[in-house]
Design a protein that fits this description.
By secondary structure, this protein is mainly α. Helix content is 78%, strand content 0%. The relative contact order is 0.04.
Length: 95
């Protein structure tokens, strides 16, 4: 019975050692991930924002270049792209 207990204790110690090694490896990998995040986050975020903004801006310009009435509305009305059946103060004029 003592040999089984000794074997179990030895196995537990080995597993604890492996667990500590795994924790240290995980810590090192987390540190490396944080380093890469700091290094590349600004680059990725800025480029993604710029691409979305430019595509939206180009799309809006293409619409306004084609439609003079829409261009005039965009310059004079707050909500120029909706509610054509509403009056100046939001009243329903569809009737």
């Amino acid at each position: 019975m003592t040999t089984q207990v000794e074997i179990l204790e030895q196995t537990v110690k080995e597993l604890q050692g492996q667990l500590q090694a795994a924790y240290s490896r995980i810590g090192a990998l987390n540190t490396e991930v944080e380093t890469y995040k700091k290094k590349y986050r600004d680059y990725v975020d800025n480029n993604e924002y710029k691409e979305k903004y430019r595509s939206l801006r180009d799309h809006q310009h293409s619409i306004l270049d084609r439609d003079f009435k829409m261009r005039q509305k965009s310059l004079t009305e707050l909500n120029y792209d909706g509610n054509e059946t509403r009056g100046r103060y939001g009243e329903d004029e569809s009737v």
